[in-house]
Each structure stands twice: as C-alpha cells, then as structure tokens.
Specification:
12 strands, Aspartate Aminotransferase, domain 1, globular, seven-stranded mixed beta sheet, 367 residues, three-stranded antiparallel beta sheet
C-alpha cells in the first residue's frame, strides 16, 4: 500500500488556469503556434526589444543571487520603498504559497472573496487553514459589498484575507477608500492585496504607502506586465518584518539568473509599457464594440480583460479553439456560462470577431 500524503493534500482539488493546454492541442491535432491565446491575461505585445540578447548573455554556470539584490534595488528605487521591503518570487503564485506556509495553519481561517484567482484557495488548503468565502454575483455586476465583507471579518476573525484588485476574472476594482475600510477592519489579519493587473489600468491609486504599520502584503506580477510567463517573475512589497519572515522559508535560488537579468532590463524600458497600454486600449475598445454588435455584451471591467456571457462556456471555448482561438472557460470560477477574454493586438482581435461571426453565420449556436 502506497504511503498517503497529508489529509489536506490528499483531498485537494487542482487549480485550473488560462493559457494553452499542450496535451489538449496535441489531441486535437492543432499546433500551439497556430493558436491565438485570448485566455491568459498577459501583455500581448511580448517582451521589450533586446530581451533575447540579455538571455543569451546571462551566465548560467553558477548559482543565481538568492536575494535578487540588484533587481530588488532597482525596484525599490522605482517604487519609492526600501530594499528590505521587497521580496522577489518565481511568479506571484510562489509568493502566495509562501505567505500561506508562513502565516496560516490548522485552526486558522482565511477570507476569500469569490469568484477570484484559484491559487488563494490552493495555498490555504496546502497550509491546512480553513476557508471563509464571500460570494459575488452577476446580478449586481460582481460588485463587492464592503459592509458585508467587514461584517464577515468581525464575525470570523480570519488570520488572513485575500483581495484581488482588480479582481480576476471580473475586472472589478476597489477604490482606495473602500480598501482602507477593509484594511482597518482586518488590522489583526494579514491582508494580501494582489495587484497583478494594475499595469494596464487607467486611474489607479497607489497602495505602497500603506505598508508602514499595517499587516499588508502587496503582490505584483512582472510576468503579466512584460510577457515573461516562460521565465516566471513577480514580487511582493510589505513591512520589513513580513519580508524577513517570508525570507526564512523562501527556497534558495528561487529566481533563476536569466529571470533576474531580464527583470532588470525590462524595468529600464520606461516607455515600453505606456506604448503597450495605448495600443491595447484601442484593441480593447474595438473588441468590446464588436462583441456588443454581435449580441455578446462584455461586462464592465476596469482591467485589461472582461467577462462575456455565452451560454455554455465549455462549448463556446471548444468551437473557437477549433478555429485556432483560445478563450478562458470560467467554469472553474463557478461561472459556467461565462468566458473571460483578454484582448490582444488589433489584427488579432479582428480575427476573433471574424471567428465568432463565422460561428453565427454557419448556424452554430455560440453557446
């Protein structure tokens, strides 16, 4: 008889994500390079110029800097915080799991506001913590009722609170005043503020000044900002005590040498993100207008992605994939009638619209 794992791990469900499933494409006889991926919330314009040169010139014979010192220094200068307030991770998902391992365990409860990123639940289950959930619904546009959240915090006294802002997959964005209410109500909890998607938003507010004196851990994703999904790169910002605690359990050499060098390079490209933002804004506007014309009205979203109700998300996704276009089936978020779409370049968005039109013209129900 094989040795069973811990109870929490044995009964843990897997977490689905956007992006290409290579085994699925192989079964369908579709080459990955033939697929336009609208399912992953990444910068569709790719990394800044010169990244391949940086990668080819990086020495990979020795161990990387375990603390990613040079990258942290550059980030600290850019963000206006101290170096000891920053922790670099192999993507923000690694940092989410480090937080759970360091702070949550059996007997602790953690508040999660759903629908949201599934890795929060996975991290809590690995650590043995129990979950307190607040569910949002399409009837009011997935808007968060702050007073209900505060009441839940006072009633359940969670050890941790996860807030995705803007939220994945709904794109809803809390104002600074709303977030301050949550931070005050949860002053005895560790509040994890996931800002993975703020780089492509307008009218954002800064949370960085809130780390002083608060149990606050802010997550950011360079993977999404600069299209570095294959390298994995993210960072957290918090008070030095929180960062020091996470450093104790952070694996040595967790961020490889290539990712560190590339991270430094992309941060030096000040104008690149602004250029991408302008082009993506145009593509997004086109896609929203055209989908509305076709009767598939995207839900309001402050982020660079949005939800669309299509009937059966699984069938809609499968039909589009047959045409070489991938969207995110949101069934795993508890939204089986919605897909999430992350706009790409304008010509690629035009291909998506054409594919949907063809589905309709051929008599195929988009659901």
């Amino acid at each position: 008889m094989s040795l069973p794992p811990r109870f929490e791990v044995q009964h843990m469900a897997s977490c689905e994500h956007g992006g290409i499933d290579y085994a699925e494409l192989e079964a369908l006889g579709i080459a990955p390079e033939e697929v336009l991926d609208f399912s992953a919330n990444l910068n569709p314009f790719g990394p800044p110029p010169g990244i391949k040169e940086v990668m080819s010139q990086t020495d990979i014979a020795g161990y990387p800097d375990s603390r990613a010192t040079n990258l942290r220094r550059l980030l600290a200068d850019k963000l206006g915080v101290k170096v000891e307030n920053i922790l670099i991770g192999s993507g923000s998902t690694e940092l989410i799991r480090l937080v759970a391992l360091a702070y949550f365990g059996r007997g602790d409860s953690v508040l999660i506001i759903e629908p949201t990123f599934g890795e929060y639940q996975i991290a809590c289950q690995i650590s043995g913590a129990s979950l307190v959930k607040q569910r949002l619904y399409a009837g009011n546009g997935f808007q968060l009722n702050i007073e209900e959240t505060i009441e839940s915090i006072h009633r359940n006294h969670p050890k941790g609170i996860f807030v995705d802002n803007p939220n994945n997959p709904t794109g809803q964005y809390l104002s600074r005043a709303e977030f301050e209410k949550l931070l005050d109500a949860g002053k005895d909890s560790l509040l994890v503020l996931d800002e993975a998607y703020i780089a492509f938003m307008d009218n954002v507010w800064s949370s960085l000044d809130m780390i002083a004196g608060n149990n606050l851990f802010i997550l950011r994703s360079m993977t999404k900002d600069y299209a570095l999904a294959g390298l994995r790169l993210g960072y957290g910002v918090a008070g030095k005590e929180i960062i020091a605690t996470l450093n104790r359990i952070c694996p040595p050499w967790n961020v490889n040498a290539v990712a560190q060098k590339v991270g430094i390079r992309v941060l030096e490209e000040e104008g690149y993100l602004k250029q991408c933002q302008a082009e993506l804004r145009q593509a997004r506007g086109y896609l929203v207008t055209e989908l509305n014309r076709l009767g598939l009205s995207p839900l309001p979203s402050a982020a660079n992605f949005f939800l669309v109700e299509v009937g059966s998300a699984a069938e809609f996704r499968h039909k589009l994939l047959r045409k070489g276009i991938l969207v995110r089936d949101c069934t795993s978020f508890g939204l089986p009638s919605y897909v999430r779409i992350s706009p790409r370049t304008l010509p690629q968005c035009q291909r998506l619209v054409t594919a949907v039109e063809e589905m309709m013209a051929s008599g195929q129900d988009t659901s």
